[in-house]
Amino acid sequence: MRTAQSIFSKHPSQRGFTLVELMVGLVLGLLTVLVISQVLALAEGKKRTITMGSDAQVNGALSLFTLQRDVQMAGYGAAASPDALGCTVTGKYDASGASVVFPLAPVVITNGTSTDTNAPDTITVLQGRTTNFSAPMVLKEDHPQSSNYFEVTSSFGAVVGNMMIAVPKVQGSGLACTLFSVTNNTASPATTLGPTRVPHAATAASKWNQNSIFPTSGYASGSYLLNMGSMVYRTYSISSANSLQMAELSPVNGVVTDPPLELYPQIVNLQAMYGKDTNGDGVVDTYDNVTPTTNAGWLQVLAIRIAVVARSNQYEKENVTASAPQWDVGANATITGATTCHGASKCISLKVSHVPEWEHYRFKVYDTIVPLRNVLWNS
Q: Is 47 exposed, middle or buried (0-12, 13-18, 19+ CB in 10 A)?
């Protein structure tokens, strides 16, 4: 018979771990967990960087596409008569409201701020939208300031509610352009829209027709009307929250979008330049951000060059950006402020230092050149 001691005795291989063995195993386990955690953290960081970089690419590409699409259509209706470019346009929604004043130009670039020219630019686009062909309508008789209709050679394309711009035959002091809308009141022949008559009588339903903003001397025979249809007047800029934003003047109520509509986030800079033909050969010779002030100056503008800077939303612990992103404008571009970089190319530094802790973020530049086709076709 086996004794109790023999029953409960164990073979040496069946004995438990010693304290030293347990501590060694625990240390090895902790080291393994530490290595795995570091690998996972690194992989997750790389994943976030790639994901956020992809988001930045989408925002940058969409921002550039939106700007390019609007600039391509800029000037339709407004550039139908090249000698009207640069004319100062005045409009007034109602008698009590403030006047709207802007130059008759497809695209106007406002360069940075008065204290920092490297700050983001503002791009304003003017374009007409009509269901019919937009052609100038020539006045066949004088239009006094008090008159509520224009007599034209043909009102083809004129529709009730269309926004139009009256352009004087000879521009000069006291002779500027005026914004108004087309009306139709069949109660009187003078206020009825017809083949040779374009009325613009102010009513409760139709604003923008304040005779007080027309030139005191009126418009002489030979002046003309530009049909802008449902006119588009938009301004693109960068918000304080680093987003591409858009504000638009509404032809319906005369109000500018406030606050502006935010389109795409993480856009930290917007720069634009005029492409100018300085020798009249139809080819852009130089790019600059000097806004023309004369008709001759506006006729030189054939293209707009745009760059947007998109930022990844991923904050990196280490500094990943040592200097401002460079806008590579090519080797042959004549651009004010460009310096040599990347071999023979020329570059412009794009400011991002206004972004807090900008060194810890990644940036990418998107750029394009947009020909002003409506200006080219009508030149």
A: exposed
How far is the C-alpha of 378 from the C-alpha of 76, rounded, in Å? Answer: 10
Give every CB contact of residue 220 below 8 A, 6+ residues apart in sequence.
139, 142, 168, 169, 170
From 31-45, 52-66, 212-226, 305-319, the region with the lowest mean pLDDT? 31-45
Tokens standing for 62?
Answer: 């969409």
Which phi-psi region, left, alpha or beta, contains residue 151 (left: φ > 0; alpha: ψ -120 to 50)?
A: beta
Q: Which of 181, 149, 148 has its CA nearest to residue 163?
A: 181
Give the type of residue at 62: L
Strand partners, 348: 327
pTM for this predicted structure: 0.84
What's the CA gap between 220 and 139, in Å, rounded? 8
**Cβ count within 10 A of residue 244:** 28
Q: For residue 27, give the amino acid letter.
A: V
Judged by DSSP in three states, 373 sits in helix
